[in-house]
Amino acid sequence: METTTTAVEFPANVEAQKLARKKAEKIALENNKLHKRLCRLVGQAIGDFNMIEDGDKVMVCLSGGKDSYALLDILMTLRERAPIHFDIVAVNLDQKQPNFPPEILPAYLTELGVAFHIENQDTYSIVKRLIPEGKTTCSLCSRLRRGILYRVADELGANKIALGHHRDDILETFFLNMFFGGKLKGMPAKLQSDDGKHIVIRPMAYVKEEDTQRYAEVKGFPIIPCDLCGSQENLQRKQIKGLMREWDKKFPGRVESIFSALSNVAPSHLMDPKLFGFKDLKADGLANPMGDIAFDEEPCSTPTTFGTIPLQAL
Ligand code: SF4
């Protein structure tokens, strides 16, 4: 006679399964929130800077790094929801760097079902030939890349070129320019290309790098390492990255505040005569209650106490 056996569930196992299910649900919820946040921030940047208009053809530059994968993914989601029509074409420039895996991006893009173009140009050899060993190769390499991408945009009929730079790239560039270049200059969210023919956009301008990092992990993007060219990492940029990480840990909100400051500039309170007509400034006799209060402290720098002694007692 046949006997049937029933698996007995021990209470400890049931409890462990429950916990695992709860954990999985929590992760799914977090991932969903992350996707929504990315869509919201990218949509907001597109709207704030009028980056994409009806009828545009947007060429998304795809390097194989986490940021450009995230950009393409989010733009494709937004295109589905947008009240306007725009086209997307993904472009990768294969610079013939040693060990670059040429099959990864075509396979990924074919599966995604997006129009794409792979441009094969051996800029690696040009850079190696022209730049002496040990010198930084990035500036020539990016100049060559830029020229090629502009030409490809022309050939594909794309009027917008989208790059995957995010909030942290913009801030790092801002600090690099300030600390090492004596300039108050970041990385624009939207600009005219230097050949005057295209508009370059950075739809991820409001997105934190840690979000693109997590999104890449969640989505399992087939990342292609970015150090194939053998160029040394920019030490100054590395320092700035470290500084921002430390601020974020020690002073929550500081990095956000600096980023907000980039969209809230008062040229009359800086010192660039090209931005504000200091030389022609005259008192016109008209009171302006919203104007500058020349001798007042800025509210954020006004201490209410001096150490533990109230200011009034000093
Ligand atoms: S890191 Fe390498 S690929 Fe990137 S810009 Fe520099 S030289 Fe070019």
TrEMBL record:
The keyword Nucleotide-binding applies. A motif (PP-loop motif) lies at residues 63-68. It catalyses: cytidine(32) in tRNA + S-sulfanyl-L-cysteinyl-[cysteine desulfurase] + AH2 + ATP = 2-thiocytidine(32) in tRNA + L-cysteinyl-[cysteine desulfurase] + A + AMP + diphosphate + H(+). GO terms for biological process: tRNA thio-modification. Residues 57-222 form the tRNA(Ile)-lysidine/2-thiocytidine synthase N-terminal domain. InterPro entries: Rossmann-like_a/b/a_fold, TilS/TtcA_N, tRNA_Cyd_32_2_STrfase, tRNA_thiolation_TtcA_Ctu1. Keywords: 4Fe-4S, ATP-binding, Cytoplasm, Iron, Iron-sulfur, Magnesium, Metal-binding, Nucleotide-binding, RNA-binding, Transferase, tRNA processing, tRNA-binding. Binds 1 [4Fe-4S] cluster per subunit. The cluster is chelated by three Cys residues, the fourth Fe has a free coordination site that may bind a sulfur atom transferred from the persulfide of IscS. Its EC number is 2.8.1.-. Its cofactor is Mg(2+); [4Fe-4S] cluster. One of its GO terms (molecular function) is ATP binding. Pathway: tRNA modification. GO terms for cellular component: cytoplasm. It is an enzyme of class 2 (transferase). It is found in: Cytoplasm. [4Fe-4S] cluster binds at residues 138, 141, 229. Belongs to the TtcA family. Homodimer. HAMAP family: TtcA. Catalyzes the ATP-dependent 2-thiolation of cytidine in position 32 of tRNA, to form 2-thiocytidine (s(2)C32). The sulfur atoms are provided by the cysteine/cysteine desulfurase (IscS) system. The thiolation reaction likely consists of two steps: a first activation step by ATP to form an adenylated intermediate of the target base of tRNA, and a second nucleophilic substitution step of the sulfur (S) atom supplied by the hydrosulfide attached to the Fe-S cluster. This is tRNA-cytidine(32) 2-sulfurtransferase.
